[in-house]
Each structure stands twice: as structure tokens, then as C-alpha cells.
Specification:
Elements lengths: L2 E5 L2 E4 L4 E8 L7 E7 L6 E6 L5 E3 L7 E6 L4 E6 L8 E9 L2 E3 L6 E6 L1
Parallel strand pairs: 2-11
Antiparallel strand pairs: 1-3, 3-8, 4-5, 4-9, 5-6, 7-8, 9-10, 9-11
């Protein structure tokens, strides 16, 4: 069973930084792609960043140049370093596990990020 646990969220002022973590279990971590998503109040969940099994990365335009996704295969963990945070980055952040483009497992509880202006 694929499980993910997100952590690292909090309240931060605009311009600040946070580092999110997502620990995954129940999978061979080295062969899966990992995503970070976020969902703002009243909005749909959106894909923020992806890191492939080969460590290629991709970002939503809204976070390019500010967020960095990385992975530690020895810890089965993916990270999201968020810099220069803006109030519009506020939301519940989730990670997801994919293999061949197929979402595996279920959503975790997410971690709340709140950016004050």
C-alpha cells in the first residue's frame, strides 16, 4: 500500500521561505515520479512541481524561479523548498506518487502553508 506523509507547512510572512517534506512508503521509491500539488480555498488542486525517477524537474509557471523540488532516495523523501513566498501560495500542499503517469495510492493529509501579506 502506497502511503505518503507531508510535513513542514506553517505560517510565514510574504517573502519568507518554507521547506516541505513528503515521506513515501509501500513503493520502490527510486522508480517513481513524485509530484507536489496545492489546493487553495475554493479552488481546484493544481500541480506545482514534479521530479522524475531520473531527477528531471518541472514547475508550474507560477512558482518557477522560486520553488525547488528535490528527492532523497535514501530516505524515500521528496522536498519542496519554497522561497520568496507570496500570499497566493497559501494552500494545502500534497504530494503524489506516479509511475508511467498513473497516480498510485491515495492522497495524504497534506500540510498547510499560509503566507501573510
Amino acid at each position: 500500500q502506497v502511503l505518503v506523509v507531508e510535513s513542514g507547512g506553517g505560517l510565514v510572512q510574504a517573502g519568507g521561505s518554507l521547506r516541505l517534506s513528503c515521506a513515501a512508503s509501500g513503493i520502490t521509491f527510486t522508480i517513481v515520479d513524485m509530484d507536489w500539488y496545492r489546493q487553495a480555498p475554493g479552488k481546484q488542486r493544481e500541480l506545482v512541481a514534479t521530479i522524475t525517477s531520473g531527477s528531471s524537474t518541472n514547475y508550474a509557471d507560477s512558482v518557477k524561479g522560486r520553488f525547488i523540488i528535490s528527492r532523497d532516495n535514501t530516505k524515500n523523501t521528496v522536498y519542496l523548498q519554497m522561497n520568496s513566498l507570496k500570499p497566493e501560495d497559501t494552500g494545502l500542499y500534497y504530494c503524489g506518487v506516479k509511475r508511467y503517469g498513473i497516480f498510485l495510492g491515495s492522497w495524504g493529509q497534506g500540510t498547510q502553508v499560509t503566507v501573510s501579506s
